[in-house]
Amino acid sequence: MKKLPLLTGLILFLIPISSIFASDIDTLYARYMVTAVYNPTQETVKSALSFLNSDGSFSDIDYQSKTDISIHLTRLRVLAGAYQSENNAYYHDTIIKNQYINALQFWIITDHRPSNWWFRHVGYPKALGISLFLMNTELKADHPELFQRAIEYLLWAYNKNDHMEGANGADKIFAALPAAILTENDTLLRRFQQQIKDLIVVQTVGEGIEPDWMFSQHSFQGRQLYANYQQEYLNSILSYLDLCKGTIYSVSTTELTVLDNHIINGMQWYVYKKHQDPAQTGRRPSSVLNPRYQNNLTLMIAQESPQQQPLIEIQNRIFNDQDTEMKLLGNRMFWRFDYMIHRREGYYVSSRLTSTRTIGMESGNGDGLDNYYTSAGLNFIFRTGLEYETPYFKVMNPRQWPGTTAEQGDRKLPSVEWGKNSRNNNPYAGGVSNQNYGTIGFIYDKKNLEATKSWFYFDNEFVALGCGISQRFGRDSVMTTLNQVIQKTPVYYSENRTVKILEIGSGITKVNNPEWFLQDSIGYINLLDSKLFTISSEIKNKTSLFSLGIEHGKNPKDESYAYVVYPNCSEVDLNRYRENNPIQILSNTKSIQAVYHNQLNITQIHFYEAGTLQLADSTTLTVDQPCAVMIIEKDSVIEISVGNPLCESKNPELITLQFSKFLKGDQVETDRKTSTLLIELPQGDDAGKSVVILMKNEK
Prior knowledge:
Layout: H1 6-14, H2 17-36, H3 42-51, H4 71-84, H5 94-110, H6 117-134, H7 136-142, H8 144-160, H9 166-182, H10 186-199, E1 208-209, E2 215-216, H11 227-244, H12 253-265, E3 271-272, E4 275-276, H13 292-302, H14 308-319, E5 330-334, E6 339-344, E7 347-352, E8 378-382, H15 392-395, E9 405-407, E10 429-433, E11 438-446, E12 449-457, E13 462-471, E14 477-486, E15 491-495, E16 498-502, E17 507-512, E18 516-519, E19 522-526, E20 532-540, E21 543-554, E22 559-567, H16 571-579, E23 583-588, E24 592-597, E25 602-607, E26 611-614, E27 620-623, E28 627-634, E29 637-643, E30 654-659, E31 663-664, E32 668-670, E33 675-680, E34 691-697
Antiparallel strand pairs: 1-2, 3-4, 5-6, 6-7, 7-8, 9-14, 10-11, 11-12, 12-13, 13-22, 14-21, 15-16, 15-18, 17-20, 18-19, 19-22, 20-21, 23-24, 24-25, 25-28, 26-27, 27-30, 28-29, 29-34, 30-33, 31-34, 32-33
Helix pairs in contact: 2-6, 3-4, 4-5, 4-6, 6-8, 6-9, 7-8, 8-9, 9-10, 9-11, 11-13, 13-14
């Protein structure tokens, strides 16, 4: 190492450490001020002033209300912005300054507490910090006591040290950050730094980034998949990192790598054609991409993290119309959430299930009141990205969520307030994936309704099986909904090999034992005889809705279904597919559900209990534990993938697979007639993650 000249080293030694701190705090101050600067229009200022009373209150705000009144804080920022903006007519206007001070003092004294804790803990301090930053010099000089009280206001929620996980924790730290910068509190800033680091971890208890790289929040009743809170979390985390980049208060590459992986292996997967999977959106279901998604991605790229280039590619694919050059294809099993995403060129599909470990989409604060059946097995299908566009979730039938098996009727749905009543009563939910193909299934058991359901994902199509559909004490019929979407085209269907057409708005049509259906280039092929389908084509509030379901009747007993969904197809494609159907249903029972694709030579199986299945080549597979298995044969190589859908509920260290044929491989014991595989299952936080091994098929 090159030595410093003595004089230079002496100069560095003489520089007080406190001055380095001060320099970095000055940097934070300057950066935060840039974000706070705001030049409102004269109309905006005049509007705020028109409601301002002499005591600092605004005449149009009910300060006794228990709801959000943050408009007061919005107007504080308007006054502060006008006062500090050189190009504003009110620049350094003494009257404006005094009016800001009066309004600030009224707010601090009133200390409004809405019934929703979040506003006083997060929303209010985040909003107040901006105007306080703009006016801090004037307040320190002329009203130091008020300045100190405002600082205490910002720190009140943070000092309570509650709600410090996930998005809420990140929000509370960022809301308190102005207080630390304005008081040059190095100790507090270092505490923030450590707490931010503690939030950028892969965790398994509470809320935040999970081991499969998806995000959980509000997991009071079970793990809840929640992209909306993910974006809130990232916004506060990345805003902090952006302010602190290059200072002593920044984070290391360890934390940046966690965020990289969170985006690359999790966050990018649920976005398709600038829309997001509604299964991710919690109590406000929507396919509209969260507006913070793009900004958060930009902020992350600015961190110059270890995987910056893949992040740039994600940004280009999603937002810069380079999807054709930078395709995201594959299959992912997110085992912590009983959730699978399957992507192919031209379509996107997801299955979000629930178990004793996970819950569906919650309700709360008046949102998500129709979310009860989101725990019943969601199956969203995108081709154009517009299938579930606004106002879909305001006009949809909440008993016909895509993929679900549910009792119909018009009675008020049970509440799922903050996730209550939103879990499933059976632990089997999950599947297996080799990153390209996969299957997911679950045993649904809730409110006297039982069903064993699974989805099998291939290239051009996927298969859905259901069996054991039974209900006791029901009052209305039970239906499995294949899909419910915004209707774009007439509905075409084939009955007795005759194609019929239903125009948009044609109402309810019953069809017995149809061959197939087609709407907006998505085909649905019936694989079982004697099934009654219901087609709904209705206009609700000027919005056309298409729904397709299979009727099981009132209080059904051991009903079943089987169908194929074929996106990007025509009538000709559907007829050709049926004539050369590559799908063979090997089993559709409550013990085993299994499908074989004879063109791809892929077998996918759910063993809901230990048992034996005869495969398409007449050999048998026996397992000693419930599991999901996928077998892909290519030439003499056999790829075997195994997953444990019981996850941490029951996770043995070993699972045994026995084939009635000769296999060769490192993990095989064979007598040339039978071959036994002992497969080690991932343990701990990875319980439920898939294992992939390669074997040789010896003829």
